[in-house]
Write a structure and sequence with these properties.
The protein is of the alpha/beta class. It has a single domain, classed as Alpha/Beta hydrolase fold, catalytic domain (Rossmann fold, 3-Layer(aba) Sandwich), CATH 3.40.50.1820. 39% of the residues lie in helices and 13% in strands. The chain contains twelve helices and nine strands. The strands form two sheets. It has a seven-stranded parallel sheet, with helices on both faces. A two-stranded antiparallel sheet has the order 7-8. A hairpin with a 5-residue loop joins strand 7 and strand 8. The longest helix is centred in the C-terminal third of the chain and has 20 residues. The chain starts with a helix and ends with a helix.
Length: 317
């Protein structure tokens, strides 16, 4: 019964913030979709403000359950990066439950077309959660000119609660198998470690990892504390977490093989901690009113501060 209750609550964890985010996106950043025909390629790509004079691009790559949220990266995050002089592009129409390979190919397609439209631009990537793994796949498959990859709560050492529930809950394992959630299964520790060993990235690529966490407190209406549903998954995670990814997994200083047969060490920046739970790290703060948060502007303020710092860091590279 405990496991059944935990599973039901876990589904609330995954879907409640995303469903609360239903509504038309108002982002003014460039957006790209996977085309279904050649005619659609030109329609999608030529309407955006990218040209040979574009200097610096930041591509935001969403993570798992991405397209369930029409606005995965809030307008405040986009504005914070634009204020630093970056042209912002957001990867769209990824498979919300897709594998690293499938979504990685879609991200690779995006990178290739960005290079055609803005051949002289410096290309930087910010991947949230599994989005960091999608970006790594794309770089491995040919996007060699990415200057920097910034990961935010990317599970370099796996998502512990998924692994625990799969091993110890027959119901959770059955659900994953029945729904063919291969992309979720890939977020276990053994698979992420195997995946990282399999990729090859340029030695010049800068990889900077950030993580976040929040305290668990009885006052679940306070944006400074973890929500009730994520407090459930946090109990199955070792150490501080954002309710989905442990802080240590996010800043796991792994070494990634390079195309030059050396090792590129992920640089974990522990000096900056994102004090938000997993979905608060990216979604528009106003949607959390619907989840009973009484002071959601705190979410906006922490988003702006964090992503502004990321923008400053990218300007120094």
């Amino acid at each position: 019964m405990v496991k059944l209750t935990s599973l039901i609550l876990s589904l609330c964890v995954v879907f409640s913030p995303l469903l609360a985010n239903a509504g038309e996106s108002k982002l003014e950043a460039a957006t790209f979709e996977m085309p279904t025909a050649e005619a659609n390629v030109n329609k999608v790509l030529t309407t955006d403000t990218l040209s040979a004079s574009t200097k610096r691009i930041v591509v935001f790559v969403p993570g798992f359950f991405n397209s369930f949220a029409p606005e995965y990266f809030s307008s405040d995050i986009v504005s914070a990066m634009q204020a630093k002089g970056f042209t912002v592009v957001i990867a769209q129409k990824l498979n919300p439950v897709g594998t690293i390979e499938e979504n990685g190919e879609r991200v690779l397609y995006l990178f290739q077309n960005l290079r055609k439209l803005a051949p002289n631009a410096q290309l930087n990537v910010v991947g949230h959660s599994a989005g960091g793994l999608y970006a790594l796949y794309a770089i491995n498959k040919g996007a060699r000119d990415v200057k920097a990859l910034v990961t935010v709560s990317t599970p370099f050492n796996g998502v512990e609660f998924v692994e625990n529930w799969r091993e110890n809950s027959w119901l959770f394992k059955t659900l994953m198998d029945w729904a063919h959630l291969d992309g979720l299964r890939q977020l276990t520790t053994p698979f992420t470690q195997q995946f990282i060993k399999s990729v090859r990235v340029p030695s010049a690529l800068k990889i900077i990892a950030y993580g976040g966490y929040q305290p668990v407190n009885w006052d679940i209406t306070n944006a400074a504390n973890m929500s009730a549903v994520l407090s459930v998954t946090d109990k199955f995670i070792t150490g501080p977490s954002d309710g989905v990814v442990s802080y240590e997994s996010a800043v796991h200083t792994t070494e990634i093989p390079t195309t030059e047969k050396t090792l590129n060490k992920v640089r974990a920046d522990r000096s900056v901690v994102l004090g938000l739970e997993h979905w608060e790290q990216v979604l528009d703060y106003r949607h959390f009113y619907l989840l009973g948060v009484r002071n959601p502007k705190l979410i906006r303020d922490r988003q702006v501060q964090f992503y502004s710092n990321v923008g400053n860091m990218l300007l120094l590279l």
